[in-house]
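Question: what's this shape?

___
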Amino acid sequence: MSAVAVTGSISPIVTRTNIPIGGMTCASCAARVEKSIRKVTGVVDVSVNLATETATVITAGDVQRSMLEMAVVEAGYQVAEMKVADPRASSGKYASTSPSLLGFLAFGDAVKLIIAALLSLPLVVPMLLTPLGMPWMLPANWQLALAAPVQFWLGAPFYRAGWRAVKAGTGNMDLLVAIGTSAAFGLSLYLMFRSPVVGAPAEMPHLYFESAAVVITLVMFGKWLESRAKRETTAAIRALQALTPPTASLIVRGAEHAVAIADIQVGDLLRVRPGERFAADGVIAVGQTHANESMITGESMPVAKTVGDRVTGGALNEEGLVDVSVSAVGAESTLQRIVRMVEDAQAQKAPIQRLVDRVSAAFVPVVLLISLLTLIGWGALTGDWQQAILNAVCVLVIACPCALGLATPAAIMVGTGVAAQRGILIKDATALETAHSINVVAFDKTGTLTEGKPTLIAAEAHDGSRADLLAIAAAIQSGSEHPLAQAVLNAAIQEGVLFQAATAIRALPGRGIAAEVAGVTYYLGSAQLMAEQDIEFPLESAPISQALKKYLDDGLTVSWLAKKDQLLGVFAFGDALKPTAKAAIEALHRIGIRTVLISGDHWGAAQKVGAALGIDEVYASVLPQQKAALVASLKAAGKRVAMVGDGTNDAPALAAANVGIAMSNGTDVAIETAGITLMRGDPMLVAAAVELSRRTTTKIKQNLFWAFCYNVIGIPLAAVGLLNPVIAGAAMALSSVSVVSNALLLRRVK
């Protein structure tokens, strides 16, 4: 279990628990497990993912894991073994050994499948030869000897899982297969023993042992293919997990020691040679190199790293020998946070899955009813009860609840995995599904479309010298991490300006800052802040006013410095556009998305950026709380809005949008608020995220279409007698395989 929130001293702790489950074969199984877990007192929400065979449970208060596991067992399923590579790593990923049919095939699956095929083949050959004019049939005793092991040994998992479903008062795919093949096997036994001369081919009626055996073999084959295909859907996660090397070179008193990853601690000094991967997040302490972070951020080009630069665990050290001071390990490392975020997204259900769950809940009972009506109808109308049984068996065997259950989660698993490899982290399935309908993307300016590293272009004093102006501004900004503050401090240091620390510092969100220097109160910030303090601006003919006009015309960001009721001067900052910003806007336009710029900067600077990039609408001088209101107004106008930002001030707007998209170079608040995080500050990834969402949603719809088609077309054909059990079994076996295989095509998206 991992606590995810603490709401107060008297509020219960909200905890998320991941439970690997064995024995699930279709959507109705997942629904039954959910229903059972919801009965546990303290469970707030539960989502069972058929594709990952995992239950994600949100609980409030003191709910023991054993209570949740008992609910799984009471539903007729097993809690599979969980294996985590690093005990400190994540709360989620596991390699489960499922006692379900998948688990049954997991150990020696190929051998058992081959045995089933070898036993079934002699039963099928006569059926294939008869249309060619070569009637031939094995003696009945031989047919029984070949079919019985397939039915009752290799097919035992179907009976066990079907019986658990019956005890729980529901049905599943295993129950349909067990009833259908048992009916075909039982009919064959009946015909065999009522035949006057057992074993005489001329006298023996046609038996249906081959139908029962082949259906079980085909379903086993389908499940084997499905398990292999499902494994491919988690390939992205496994690739990320494999990035961390098993050992690292720890430096102790100048000597190197090989240590396991689990033994690394924050503050340790690790030596990383060229060609090795960084074992943990850290900061370069000695040396310089280039780091290949493509598997983590999607950045294709190696990134230069020198002393003081951060490196990410799992990245490849390209060329230099470096020593790294460890800053994060285990669950707090960037790589494990990425893995955990992708796992969480894959474990959740997309909104469209809720509808599928409602259909799946009634699917098996409806199929059983149709099968019963087929049996009675054919028997009553034709008097041929033998054919009636076969048609009823076909109905049971062709029903495909697995395909319905896998249609949505398989596509989401592949989509989120592909996104992670491209540097796009999708927090939840809702964000992935919602992003496909976005038609407006709103951008913050600084740090999102610009580099976020402004430089001080000019400092124009109205009363006094430039050095005095810069000294006061640097004193006020000395404790700030704001990009404009850093620009002022860098300029002061470069020019050798001495300044003292300010006191009584007060941040004024969206407007600037107030502080005392040598007992005098100063204000540094926007024109709005100056107006609030009744600061009078000089006449337009004054030199500072003329300089200000030039700054605004050039699209520079400006800040004013004042004390009491006196303006002291103005600062002008320049911030370069990101190299891919214009291409990103053009890419969004190509896929039919309107772009909006929402900036707290003045109109001149915002308009300059908007015009340079070709943005459709520009809003300037917008306060943080107004950003959220502006996003809400766009939504109220019928737009589906994505907000892209990187700062704390963007968090309300990110939360207000249909989908919030945060730059990973931004603040933790922005990243936690957003539904999608871009692992590198490249605005081109915004269009990529929307396009990937569209492709994934298309795959979900295709999967659901084919899943429903299998059933809507197949079940009526079986009911009217146009299918035989073998063909029905083949269609049922391949239905879920086709759904998962279709989802895997997402990996080709570029």
User: Anything to note?
Assistant: The radius of gyration is 33 Å.
